[in-house]
Amino acid sequence: MTITQLKYVLAVAEHQNFTKAAQKTFVTQPTLSMQIQKLEEELDILIFNRSKKPIELTEVGKKIVTQARNIVNESERMQDVVDQEKGFVGGEFKLGIIPTITPTLLPMFLKAFTNRYPKVQLKIEELTTPEIITQLQDGHLDAAIAATPLRQEQIKERALYFEPFVGYIPSNHRLSGKNKIDSADLELDDILLLEDGHCFRDGVINLCKSSKLSGGDQFQLESGSFETLIKLSNEGLGMTLLPYLHTLDVSEKEQENLRYFNEPSPAREVSLIYSKSELKLQIIEALYDVISGVVRGAIAFQDVKIIDPLKK
């Protein structure tokens, strides 16, 4: 049994196809198939049901994959120990970021990080929170930036900052005369939301849980971006809520429509999250230091109330 064989097993389990797995592991398909067959013969079991399309794991195969992932992770930890001992910060690092954070946070820290740690090959992927959780658990991501708490036993969370919610209220709206707003002012049927799948949407819904739902609207508008929500709001179709960092990019005229909450302001907790196996910890620490450093100057809010980012 070799680490290479276990990596081939993990690749087939992920892609459910021998040809794709071979491409991803940079070997020929016959080589990969032969090595997996050798492992199956050594263990005297079948890991994969090859008669199924796509290929499926057998019941014992599922247990083998779980153990294989642990063994491969532990083998990679050896290199981590060596890197940390040498003070080396480098190598490939896969980072996931949720879509409502990417456009504001990424430009703030990416250049500073790559300048300070040029030997790190950062691979960034925009993913939803459920996708991030799955990929962290499966070992396909090294870390991620997401709204927390997520309450996942195998995932560690380190808070980077607290980002207040800010109301965007057009001049024709019933709340436009207020200098500051409260969560009690909000009615969910009156708020333009991000489409399903965004944790910020779920946070807004959780914030409005105590408000009555009128159910009398003729339409419900949802969008995939805050920019679209602002445009719809400007057309008089309702108010919306924005994360604070997004308000830094609105035009001077649109800033007149921003309304902050009375303290404690509802806010989302944004954290750097990673597996409790703590692989590549030296890069995780470097990311945490750079991001928390650049954000500290942008967000000075302290008196906040953290809103749950998950569906209830």
TrEMBL record:
<keyword id="KW-0010">Activator</keyword>
<feature type="domain" description="HTH lysR-type">
    <location>
        <begin position="1"/>
        <end position="58"/>
    </location>
</feature>
<dbReference type="InterPro" id="IPR036390">
    <property type="entry name" value="WH_DNA-bd_sf"/>
</dbReference>
<comment type="similarity">
    <text>Belongs to the LysR transcriptional regulatory family.</text>
</comment>
<dbReference type="Pfam" id="PF03466">
    <property type="entry name" value="LysR_substrate"/>
</dbReference>
<dbReference type="GO" id="GO:0003700">
    <property type="term" value="F:DNA-binding transcription factor activity"/>
</dbReference>
<keyword id="KW-0804">Transcription</keyword>
<dbReference type="InterPro" id="IPR036388">
    <property type="entry name" value="WH-like_DNA-bd_sf"/>
</dbReference>
<dbReference type="GO" id="GO:0003677">
    <property type="term" value="F:DNA binding"/>
</dbReference>
<keyword id="KW-0238">DNA-binding</keyword>
<dbReference type="Pfam" id="PF00126">
    <property type="entry name" value="HTH_1"/>
</dbReference>
<dbReference type="InterPro" id="IPR005119">
    <property type="entry name" value="LysR_subst-bd"/>
</dbReference>
<dbReference type="GO" id="GO:0032993">
    <property type="term" value="C:protein-DNA complex"/>
</dbReference>
<keyword id="KW-0805">Transcription regulation</keyword>
<protein>
    <submittedName>
        <fullName>DNA-binding transcriptional regulator OxyR</fullName>
    </submittedName>
</protein>
<dbReference type="InterPro" id="IPR000847">
    <property type="entry name" value="LysR_HTH_N"/>
</dbReference>
